[in-house]
Amino acid sequence: MMASTDLHGAGLGLRRELIPALSVGKPEVVDFFEIAPENWMEVGGTIGKAFRTITEKTPLVCHGLSLSLGGPAPLDEVFLQKLRAFLDQHGVGLYTEHLSYCSDDGQLYDLMPIPFTAEAVEYVAQRVRQTQEVLGRRIAVENASFYAKSPIDEMSEIEFVNAVVERADCWLHLDVNNVYVNSINHKYNPREFIRGVDAARVVYMHMAGHYQESEDLLVDTHGADVIDPVWDLLDFTYRHIGVRPTLLERDFNIPPLENLVSEVGRIASLQHRHETPTGDGNVSSAAHS
Fold it and tell me: Domain range spanning residue 143?
């Protein structure tokens, strides 16, 4: 399997709406971009050329949408072969997918939760291992937001997440906003969730905004600014497990680039606060209990 990427710092989701502004120049604070490969694998023409120009100069992460790791249908190996070629073509060091499913005799166009059972752990872990074999690299799976608990759950969310990444021997993509959203919707302490994470498996993080439907219902939309409690949770996460490359997701209601750059800058500031100088002048992540 390929080793971990040299990815570092703070990143921004690359949306087509941002291409004109980014073509003028990449903001200094943005260390990498992330894309959903399904949205770019077949893109050519002017947009495709602009995309290649940007990614030739800046590291790229791919965050998948359609693999359906928890779904009932066999994995799409034709898609995986195309994905491998795309990752290799663009020098992508990290590919991540949702720990969820999105298909059942066709695409559901939503990310559905997987029951937290021992059987599901084995099933999903086997599919992650198959994915890694086809792609020729270790992947990371992301803790997903969900809105209804399964009546057959046998373990907690964090126990399920940790069991999958251990059995699959993959990495964890920790979405801090998803932890916060789920903690409100399912009434648990988000800091306890972070304390339960296997820090050695975490290679990447997400930050995003959400929509407050009611006092006890949050919807993970990626369509608003990050709120202060989520910033506080990121600060706690860096203190507890150390700094990891962290991306700002913004998929809807996309503001001007300078607004997004301000939030990316806030991620970078938190990272710098928690990085510890080493004797050789480099920095390392500080992790605290």
Answer: 10-285
